[in-house]
Design brief:
Elements (H helix, E strand, L loop, with lengths): L1 E8 L8 H17 L2 E6 L5 E6 L3 H14 L2 E8 L2 H9 L3
């Protein structure tokens, strides 16, 4: 299941969260290595956009809770369809 997650961290001075931001990258690297994260992009200013590829809503929920424990944030979650699956779906319409 693909999800695009965009974070909006709490407004705090950037210098006060340097250690948390370093822990975030240490936390997400194993998810990248396992393929549960396809890409991670830091947003200009603050926050991140992450493409998760997880087996269930519960897995995403666990990841977002772990993320929020490191860097408290509001998350916008967008469920996505793999491009090949979207093309296949369109071929069978109308």
């Amino acid at each position: 299941m693909l999800f695009l997650v965009i974070s909006e961290p709490r407004p705090e001075p950037p210098s006060s969260v340097v250690a948390s931001r370093q822990r975030y990258w240490q936390w997400i690297q194993p998810l990248i290595d396992r393929g549960e994260v396809r890409s991670v992009h830091a947003k200009v200013g603050r926050g991140a956009a992450v493409l998760f590829d997880v087996p269930s809503n519960e897995a995403l929920h666990a990841h977002l809770n772990a993320w929020a424990d490191i860097i408290p944030a509001r998350f916008d979650v967008h469920a996505l369809i793999d491009p090949d699956a979207a093309r296949t779906f369109l071929k069978h319409q109308g």
